[in-house]
Amino acid sequence: MTGLIIKIFVCPITVFIASFLFPNVTYANLWQPIIVGLILAVAAHMMEIFLLKADTFWTSTLMDFAAATLIVYFVSLFLAGAEVTFFGALFTGLLLAVTEIFQHRYLINSGRTRKSPA
């Protein structure tokens, strides 16, 4: 649950920052990067539940990068006035993957990724 709470704040802020950093990521309204970020937060949290363990650190981070890129690109297509190119989504996904590195290290080092036996 800690991972989800962190992501609920980090993902929208990162998408919002990406819209200022990258010229090919443009949102018409303030709520649009927030919506994209919240969708990313839920998707990334679900991926962590299923994938993240100490031995899958880099695999999980790469999967987060790929998923973030696709989610940013395709969700932005449905937002009126939003203009995100594939390269803009790629750069945003890269920025999100960098934040995921720190989040994954925190979750692994704190023991919050241990799965209980079924």
Task: Give a description of the structure.
By secondary structure, the protein is mainly alpha-helical. It has one domain (2-109). The chain is built from four helices and two strands; from the N terminus they run αβααβα. It has helices at residues 2-21, 31-51, 57-77, 86-109, and strands at 25-26, 83-84. It has a two-stranded antiparallel sheet with strand order 1-2. The longest helix has 24 residues, at 86-109. It is elongated, with a radius of gyration of 14 Å. 34% of the residues are buried.
Summarize the structure in short.
The protein is mainly alpha-helical and 118 residues long. The chain contains 4 helices and 2 strands, in the order H-E-H-H-E-H.
What distinguishing features does this structure have?
118 residues, mainly alpha, two-stranded antiparallel ribbon, 4 helices, 73% helix, 3% strand, elongated
Task: Give the beta-strand count.
Answer: 2
Derived from helix and strand composition plus strand pairing, the structural class reads mainly alpha
* Mean pLDDT level: 90
- Share of residues in strands: under 5%
The sequence of SSEs as H and E is HEHHEH
Radius of gyration: 14 Å
Dominant shape = elongated
Lateral arrangement of strands in the main beta sheet: 1-2
Q: List the uncertain runs.
A: none
Number of helical elements:
4
Helix proportion range? over 70%
Number of domains: 1
Draw up the topology in text.
Layout: H1 2-21, E1 25-26, H2 31-51, H3 57-77, E2 83-84, H4 86-109
Antiparallel strand pairs: 1-2
